Amino acid sequence: MSLPVYYSTESGPDLQALADGAGLTIEQVIAIHQQTEYRVYAIGFAPGFAYLGEVDPRIAAPRLATPRQKVPRGAVAIADRQTAVYPAQSPGGWNLIGLCPQRMFDPNANPTMPVQVGDRVRFEAIDKHIFLALGGEL
Predict the structure, then answer these.
(1) What DSSP line would sit under 51-82, residue for residue?
(2) Long-range contacts of 57-60 (CB under 8 A, 24+ apart)
(3) Global pTM?
(4) Contact, 91 vs 71, CB < 8 A?
């Protein structure tokens, strides 16, 4: 499965800091994040929150020292060697690098989640216009 992501400092408030900490450009972080096919290790924390791994060690980053009170639905994030898409607005301490317009949990859909444990997921960069056209919200 491929998930679209609007990667930018507008949609990913930690993207610049993650790039700086890794000694990379934002473009390199985005390219590295997209080049890996991730396996769904587990679903937890919240319905539809899929723990995906493993992130390339060059862009692995520790959780934030102080979690945010509000992480938006669709936030694409990295913590240590895992990446995920937040399925709903919630508190969270992961590094936010972009936004995904794909709903990761919809109780009215069948199936309710687009991924299951064991699935493989890739991320694909999209621009702001496409993100908004796919129903994404800033």
Answers:
(1) EEE---TTT-BPPPSS-EEEE-TTEEEEEBTE
(2) 57/81, 58/22, 58/24, 58/32, 59/18, 59/22, 59/24, 59/29, 59/32, 59/33
(3) 0.95
(4) yes
Q: How many CB atoms neighbour CB 27 within 10 A?
A: 11
Average confidence (pLDDT) over 66-90: 97
Tokens of 87: 């399925």
Give the model confidence (pLDDT) of 19-60 as tens digits. Answer: 999 999 999 999 999 999 999 999 988 999 999 999 999 999
Confidence of residue 72 (pLDDT cuts 50, 70, 90): very high
Domains and their CATH numbers in the chain: 2-133 (2.40.100.10)
The pair of structure tokens assigned to 94 is 């992961």
d(CA 87, CA 44): 11
Distance CA 122, CA 80 (A): 18
Could you tell me the end-to-end alpha-carbon distance of the chain, in angstroms, rounded to an integer? 24
- pLDDT, mean of residues 102-122: 96
